Write the structure tokens for this entry.
Amino acid sequence: MTKLINGKEIAQNLRNQLKAEIDSLKSKIGKVPGLAVVQVGNVAASSVYVKAKTKSAKEVGIDVIDHHLSQETSEKDLLELVYKLNNQDNVNGILVQLPLPNHINEQIILDSIHPNKDADGFHPLNVGKLSIASKNDENLLIPCTPYGCLIMLKGLDINLSGMNAIVIGRSNIVGKPMAQLLLKESCTVTVAHSKTKNLEEVCKSADIVVAAVGRPQMVKGGWIKKGAVVIDVGINRIKLNTNGEIKNKLVGDVDFIEAKKNAAAITPVPGGVGPMTIACLLRNTTIAFKNSQKN
Ligand code: GUN
């Protein structure tokens, strides 16, 4: 029987733990973590994510400082806001929702966030620390989606050490940090991308497949080795024609129905990786808050 990895439930457990920790910190030191959430413009998907992140943060007891700026906001004005938040005592984590409008250089903005307040783990210093750090460093700010994937993998009854893992996609947000995390677990990691030759063959040799390409159902069921674990990061909106009726559907980067026939365990879309990303953002914010109390 293929195990369905229930991201909703695992994320709920993590949020419960964080809520208990935040309650206890509040009674001990009289303060709670603060998360600044910055959105520029009105990209529909970003609005959905920001709303979900804000709601979850409030539920675990994190203070949310919301900044929704217009699409026309200049890079300079956004930088000024980030600098202000860097110096604001009630802000422990800063999240600037991506993508930003084309006239703003994303890397300049990500670099401007103070590394200690980097709720996404995207600052070059944190990216560097992730690649150097030993396996059990609990103070690191780690990109949320790949860390969520790792928690799901570690929750399975398998020994990751020595496994062949393929990460499909080389983005800074998911693919590259995912590869670092799997390497730390002593997996043998292949990072595949749009120029990879024989992707199907490489995929067929993998014990763990993490798909993060943003292309609906690109990974076919036949590419999955019998008994492999499949983590599907994709969230793609497609239109389905059912008996002449056009319906919107959310699908992953993996052909779920076919892949499930071969996989030992697989994440669904929705209800897999998505909720884990948000829970890990709350985790990073709590870590940043605890780190700030040590200084
Ligand atoms: N856009 C898509 N995923 C993410 C994420 O994890 N963090 C931020 N800030 N923006 C995103």
